[in-house]
Amino acid sequence: MPSPAYLEAFYASATDEALLWLVELSHPALTQTVRVVNDYQSLTHAGYVYLPGGFQLQLPEQGSGVQGRARLQIENVDRAIGEALEAAREPALVTLRAVLASQPDVVEEEYPDFDLVEATWDAGSIEGDLAYQDLEAQSFGDIFLPSRWSGLR
Fold first, then answer.
1. pLDDT tens track for 12-31
2. DSSP 31-97
């Protein structure tokens, strides 16, 4: 649950406290996890350095029956990142965290393990939808074959 300081800064019309989003993008095809903060300077969180960068983030809608998709666009990415993601067969994983600049190791909100789907990239940015795996659409269990399950006849 977000702290009172975070909620106060979040709902204030003006505040001295900076609300920052941390983005982690990881994939086996990448040599290292990409870590970006929406600020003008680097930030250290949990021992990792997040590089300053421009990105646009549209958070997922909340409510019953909502699929939980977000939208992310990261500016000025390295060409090798775009090429690696394009060649990948499975989507990259993205984790979003909200922190206060005064307390960067205290996670106020977290959205872990989004899949980066329908991603596109060009010379200046990567963008795509962030979605959780649709567990209802995945098969569960094994196929029933009488020859394999003789005790269930």
1. 888 889 999 999 999 888 88
2. SS-EEEESSSS-EEETTEEEEE--EEEEPPP-STT----EEEEEES--HHHHHHHHH-SSPEEEEEE
> Do 97 and 21 contact (CB within 8 A), yes or no?
yes
Residue 89, CB-side half-sphere exposure with 13 Å CA sphere: 0
Cβ neighbours for 80, distance < 8 A, ≥ 6 positions apart = none
Phi, psi of 120 (to 5 degrees): -130, 160
Whether the CB-CB separation of 18 and 39 falls below 8 Å is answered with yes
0.85 exceeded by pTM: no
Contacts of residue 78, defined as CB under 8 A and 6 or more positions apart, other chains included, come to: none
